[in-house]
Design goal:
Elements (H helix, E strand, L loop, with lengths): L4 H9 L3 H27 L5 H10 L9 H27 L7 H26 L9 H21 L6
Helix pairs in contact: 2-4, 2-6, 3-4, 5-6
């Protein structure tokens, strides 16, 4: 089977679930960054502490280096992309009937709230307790809800197809 230029562009018009999930996850991750930067600006906090905290959680030795901030943003966005892919694949496999509905938005937001709870109550207290003190719980929860809402809106605007 040969591929034409129109086949190439169709991939972007109707992305597969993994690419739709990646796009939605990156949008959600970007929404979180915007929220945290705005919050830190409103409260006089230092937004650079968040990416440094992410690096401290994954690569503690690099947390105080010059690469901590870009590496933290890169790690955040990579995790966001993977999370978006996992969510889309879960919808595709377990509840495809909710695609494009309000239930899909609710499902995605609920998943992100679950991710927040696991991170802030189970994982981070063990691997990096200082990270959970960077912003109040409510602020970090809002960031996850914004991730979920943004990812859901982007996903509903992508005409992704099933596997």
């Amino acid at each position: 089977m040969t591929h034409t230029n129109s086949d190439f562009f169709n991939v972007f018009r109707t992305p597969r679930p993994w690419s739709a999930g990646m796009i939605a996850g990156l949008a959600g991750g970007a929404a979180e960054i915007v929220w945290i930067v705005l919050y830190m600006g409103w409260t006089g906090g230092d937004p650079e502490r968040m990416p440094e905290g992410i690096v401290a959680s994954v690569f503690p030795i690099a947390a105080t280096t010059k690469v901590a901030i870009p590496l933290g943003i890169l790690l955040h966005m990579a995790i966001a992309a993977v999370l978006g892919i996992v969510i889309v694949l879960a919808i595709n496999m377990f509840c495809p009937q909710i695609r494009g509905t309000t239930h899909e938005k609710a499902f995605i937001i609920a998943v992100l709230i679950g991710v927040w709870a696991v991170n802030f109550f189970l994982i981070l207290p063990v691997i990096n307790p200082q990270f959970i003190t960077l912003v109040p719980y409510g602020t970090s929860l809002i960031s996850k809800v914004l991730f979920g809402f943004t990812a859901a809106v982007v996903l509903q605007r992508l005409p992704w197809r099933t596997i």
